[in-house]
Amino acid sequence: MSTDWMTPHLNYDSMAWDAIDEGEELPPVVREVDATLVVVGAVAASRDFYPVHHDKAFAEQSGSPDVFVNILTTNGLMAAYVTNWCGPDWDLVAIDLRLKIPVFPGQTLTTKGAVTRKYEQDGYHALDIGFSADADYGTHCSGTATIRRAESA
Amino acid sequence: MGARMGTLYDERLRHHIGNESPRTEAVDAVCPQMIRHWVEVMQDENPAYTDPDWAARSRHGGIVAPGAMMQVWSMAPLWPPRDVDLPIAPIDEILEGEGYTKIVATGQAQTIVALARVGDTVSFTVRLTDVSETDHKTRLGMAYFVTFEYRFTNQDDDLLGTQSFTYMRFKPEPETDEAPAA
After folding, report:
1. Superfamily for A23-150?
2. In terms of CB atoms within 10 Å, which end of chain B has fewer, N or C?
3. What are the sequence ranges of the domains in chain A?
4. Cross-chain residue pair B41–A49, CB shorter than 8 Å
């Protein structure tokens, strides 16, 4: 399996413990939500075949203006937002997600985050990252992710 | 109305709490293809998921699957139908019968203990962990909140992680018709 074509898009660098401050903000990430993201996120990435995520007519019948992003995709986007920032030497150990309003094709999703807690626990350096993602009509989701890295690493 | 709903909880809902599904095996083993399909959508840049050389030299010792992806392995196939007795089914049936016909997911929380490795077979159980004792007034209508928890293990019965999931079942009604309950 060759993944050379992917290599330039991967992040091999990790944030150093000493370079992180409590309260520090993560750079925002903007993602244009289109039907491809909604449908491929549901059907291909997460094998969620519930028709509200791929069939606009079905979504409309159930009172929604269009297909909308499924929870597994939202969770995956938020997890990647955090771990793309900290780099591969950190492990995501918890992610708590609260859902607000659905996000539809044609909207822009802007994810922001901040280091809400920096601490040491059981031989690990740990960070709690508070995050939220805003779509056109308000907040799509918010939550907290915990990442950690062995102190000896 | 509040008193009657309390009765519904005591008489028909509460005894389901704690019930657990049978252990169910994922239809596919953990594989680089499914991992990459996830990574493509999330634009996840972690080489532990897609760079075999880096992953082999890393603390993971080889390609691993994103922890946030744990539920994907549990998803039902499109065909043939897979019937698993889920402990939330009776709750849904009862609440649906009482007029709480609409569902909205409100949140989930994952705890990641270990990452699944390529070749692993993930299994899961689903346990009903909570149902609200009465219905609550929400923006969408009166609603019951239902919480269940997945537990994911590999073929050696090592715990990979847990995932709680909360949704509300509500009676759709216009906000203006709302009167304070009880």
Report:
1. Hotdog Thioesterase (3.10.129.10)
2. C
3. 23-150
4. no
